[in-house]
């Protein structure tokens, strides 16, 4: 086992940077979800975070550690959406120029919101161009700092503040959870959550959930090493479309995560409709996978305390409406 | 001025009864709403309360004070929806039989949810029958206790716990609000909120918001006495369709409320779409009126701290989708 290079202390330091800057999202519960799962289920809607997703946490934690010269030269990032908005809003708060390299087929709402936050958006074709090369070229030309989406210790520590809060909020309810479920894309949120949760309660078991069409973590666990999937299969979960686990994130997640679970596209749509009808929350596909796994009984949780993260809420009205139509009685 | 017969102490007693029973709904904020209003705006989504609306608070506070014989004889209530569900769920928790008299044209989701909570639902025709008479007959025949929707000291005290929490949560942010906005239908929530808020901060100004098609409070303030409107005009705000202020609630609200504001049906639809896109919350029409008033600049709030209640989230998928379609870019 390799040494874990991000520490709980890094997460505590990030929490200090984010205090009064990030939203302390609530940890709530619903009698309907409890009854359905025959468990006490607490969910943390990061959809209520700035820019509608947890991504702001990591981005701000990274940018807040740049010096004034670096901030002046600006930052650049590539992202299908939520990371873009997270970096853009963090940059706005820190008065830092920002360029975001985004795929031209990203959800319209995410393109628009990124621009509205004051970022310069550079579009690229996901099928013919390399976003890594474009971003590297911008960094080279302008001296801007590249802000990775997940494979970075400061990003991981920032996302970890979500887990730190969650554990504190569980303690406010005077409860300990046996299991914690989280979506996983590149693995930044998962790594930060796992580090925080395990540091605060070594007995807690962390489960990661991904769409069955983007099962790179599931396959990596089975193979015992990082696996890359081809990534041409479609998924509604645009925020979880990483084709391989991050190197740093995997070094953490492969050690701390109990198991990797899969959900289907229909199960995600069902969870989105459930969140509308029963939780009164707007959750995006990638943000709903952990809820979907729970609703499908993918994990035996009867008579236990369970926590989960609803990681984002940036969904187009059309996609949302189609989920509600598909499952009118979830 | 008449003496106010519900006290802050009643609200504190209600809060004790509701502790660990009601959801302590969060008080949150959004950078987008702050920027749009040029103010610090905090909203309390009672949509996250049991049954998706604040109504559970008052119902439980009323039922929890029945003795075991009364609980055995059951309770009866009439309601277009949220009060029905609130009473039904409170009764379920207290093992008490419950009959709900509901209009046959109530939103389907509210009829279904009331039945699912274990209540016997008795339908009536809003145009030809009197729900008061039907409920009174049931109470007479069975010995059941009638649970009023708003004009009752225990109901008002229960709803007041929403205000008590809101003020405590503002204090957690180390802030005081200059103004507090709330939807008003019959006036139970408004009365409870006003009592709690004014007791905890006499300087706070409370504003009530209602749909312009159901402006009985607005007209009552202008007339200096309770006015009854005809109530045949349509409104999307099914949870605010009281045609006259309650007697007890008006004795409180006429003294404590600074002003009554009106919003149009389109402004409500806009606020629902805004809550979807920016707040990631599902809010029903009646629950969105205070937000609508704020978004329309109906109150000068620049550079102040404002609090508001989003009072419920029980909305049909079709109504929701039509609001998002009408305002795709709110």
Explain the overall architecture.
Chain A has two domains: 8-53 and 152-326, 3-Layer(aba) Sandwich (Rossmann fold); 56-146, 3-Layer(aba) Sandwich (Rossmann fold), CATH 3.40.50. Helices cover 45% and strands 15% of the residues of chain A. Chain A contains 14 helices and ten strands. In chain A, the strands form two sheets. Chain A has a six-stranded mixed β-sheet, with helices on both faces. Chain A has a four-stranded parallel β-sheet with strand order 5-4-3-6, with helices on both faces. The longest helix of chain A is centred in the middle third of the chain and has 20 residues, at 153-172. The A-B interface holds A 23, 25-26, 28-31, 45, 47-48, 50, 52, 89, 109, 276-277, 279-283, 313, 317, 320-321, 324-325, 328 and B 23, 25-26, 28-31, 45, 47-48, 50, 52, 89, 109, 276-277, 279-283, 313, 317, 320-321, 324-325, 328.
Question: Which helices and strands occur, and which strands form pairs?
Answer:
The structure is a homodimer of 330-residue chains.
Chain A lengths: L7 H11 L9 E2 L1 H7 L2 E6 L9 H9 L4 H6 L1 E4 L3 H12 L4 E6 L4 H9 L3 E5 L6 H12 L2 E2 L6 H20 L6 E5 L4 H13 L4 E7 L4 H8 L23 H10 E7 L1 H15 L9 H7 L9 E6 L6 H10 L4
Parallel strand pairs in A: 2-10, 3-4, 3-6, 4-5, 7-8, 7-10, 8-9
Antiparallel strand pairs in A: 1-2
Helix pairs in contact in A: 1-8, 3-5, 3-8, 5-6, 8-9, 9-11, 12-13, 12-14
Question: Would you count the extended β strands of chain A for me?
Answer: 10
Largest interface: A-B, 28 and 28 residues
Give average pLDDT of chain A, whole number: 95
Relative helix content of chain A: 40-55%
- Gyration radius of chain A, to the nearest Å? 18 Å
Strand line-up across the major sheet of chain A? 1-2-10-7-8-9
Please tally the helical runs of chain A, counting DSSP H or I stretches of 4 or more residues. Answer: 14
Uncertain residue segments of chain A: none
Q: What is the name of the CATH architecture of the largest domain in chain A?
A: 3-Layer(aba) Sandwich
For the record, the count of structural domains of chain A works out to: 2
Main sheet record of chain A: 6 strands, mixed
Q: Please identify the structural class of chain A as seen in this structure.
A: alpha/beta
CATH topology of the largest domain in chain A: Rossmann fold
Helix-strand string of chain A? HEHEHHEHEHEHEHEHEHHEHHEH
Oligomeric form of this entry?
homodimer
């Amino acid at each position: 086992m390799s040494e874990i290079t991000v520490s709980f202390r890094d997460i505590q330091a990030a929490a200090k940077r984010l205090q009064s800057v990030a939203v302390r999202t609530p940890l709530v519960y619903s009698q309907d979800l409890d009854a359905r799962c025959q468990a006490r289920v607490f969910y943390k809607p990061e959809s209520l975070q700035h820019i509608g997703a947890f991504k702001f946490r990591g981005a701000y934690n990274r940018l807040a550690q740049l010096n004034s010269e670096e901030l002046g030269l600006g930052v650049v990032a590539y992202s299908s959406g939520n990371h873009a908005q997270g970096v853009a809003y963090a940059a706005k708060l820190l008065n830092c120029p920002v360029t975001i390299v985004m795929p031209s087929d990203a959800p319209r709402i995410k393109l628009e919101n990124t621009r509205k936050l004051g970022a310069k958006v550079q579009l690229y074709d996901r099928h013919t161009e390399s976003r890594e090369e474009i971003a590297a070229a911008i960094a080279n030309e302008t001296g801007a700092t590249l802000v990775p989406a997940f494979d970075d210790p400061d990003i991981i520590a920032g996302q970890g503040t979500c887990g730190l809060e969650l554990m504190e909020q569980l303690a406010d309810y005077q409860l300990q959870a046996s299991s914690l479920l989280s979506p996983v894309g590149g693995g930044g949120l998962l790594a930060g959550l796992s580090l925080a949760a395990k540091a605060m309660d070594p007995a807690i078991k962390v489960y990661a959930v991904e769409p069955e069409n983007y099962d790179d973590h599931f396959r990596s666990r089975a193979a015992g090493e990082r696996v890359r999937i081809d990534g041409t299969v479609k998924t509604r979960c645009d925020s979880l479309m990483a084709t391989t686990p991050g190197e740093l994130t995997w070094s953490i997640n492969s050690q701390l995560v109990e198991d990797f679970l899969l959900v289907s596209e229909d199960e995600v749509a069902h969870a989105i409709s459930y969140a509308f009808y029963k939780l009164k929350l707007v959750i995006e596909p990638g943000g709903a996978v952990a809820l979907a796994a729970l609703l499908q009984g993918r994990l035996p949780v009867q008579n236990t305390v369970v926590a989960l993260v609803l990681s984002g809420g940036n969904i187009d009205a059309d996609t949302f409406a189609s989920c509600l139509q598909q499952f009118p009685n979830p």
